[in-house]
Amino acid sequence: MNKIKVITGLMFSVLIATIFTQSCTTSKMIEQKSGAQLWGENCIRCHNMPSPADFTDVQWATIGLHMQDRVNLTDAEAKKIVDFMKSAN
Ligand code: HEC
User: Fold this and answer.
1) Which of 35, 38, 53, 56 has the fewest CB atoms within 10 Å of its CB?
2) Which residue's CA is minimally distant from atom 8 of ligand 1?
3) Which amino acid residue places its CA nearest to atom 24 of ligand 1?
4) What is the Cα–Cα distance from 43 to 18, expressed in whole angstroms?
5) How confident is the model at residue 60 (pLDDT cuts 50, 70, 90)?
6) Could you give the count of Cα atoms lying within 13 Å of 80 in the half-sphere of its Cβ?
7) CA 54, CA 56: separation in Å to the nearest integer?
8) Which of 67, 74, 80, 89 to mutate to test the pocket of ligand 1 (most atoms within 8 A of CB)?
9) What is the overall mean pLDDT for the chain?
10) How many alpha carbons fall within 13 Å on the CB side of residue 32?
């Protein structure tokens, strides 16, 4: 009876540890997404994907702020997208 309790307890700890490690890895992966990836995933949801060449660097800075509100991006993600947009003209 006791052995079963110990084994169940161990399995439970391993499960918790696995879930914890995986959720950490997942959020790290989100942080590591490139500007191009974030752009491809987010900017097409409401309208056609604007091409990086469509606007000047100054315009992209403003658009980035404007769209950040709509898309719910973090500051870091919005900066990556804007940097990507700027790098492409
Ligand atoms: C939640 C919906 C939504 C998402 C997601 C979204 N946009 Fe927009 N976007 C709009 C709307 C609505 C307009 C037009 C009205 C306005 O300009 O306020 C617009 C307009 C624009 C314009 C101006 C287009 C023009 O021809 O003048 C650009 C550029 C733009 N978005 C870029 C982006 C980028 C870059 C992203 C990704 C970070 C993005 N949008 C994500 C809703 C969205």
Assistant:
1) 53
2) 67
3) 50
4) 33
5) very high
6) 19
7) 7
8) 67
9) 80
10) 6
Using a 6 Å cutoff on CB, does residue 1 contact ligand 1? no
Q: 80 pLDDT band (50/70/90 cuts)? A: very high
Nearest CA to ligand 1 atom 31: 67
Tell me the pLDDT tens digit for each residue of 22-41: 665 555 555 679 999 998 99
Q: Tokens in use for 12?
A: 């439970």
Binding site membership of 70 for ligand 1 (Cβ less than 6 Å): yes
* 53 C-beta closer than 6 A to ligand 1: no
Rounded Cα gap, residues 65 and 16, in angstroms: 39
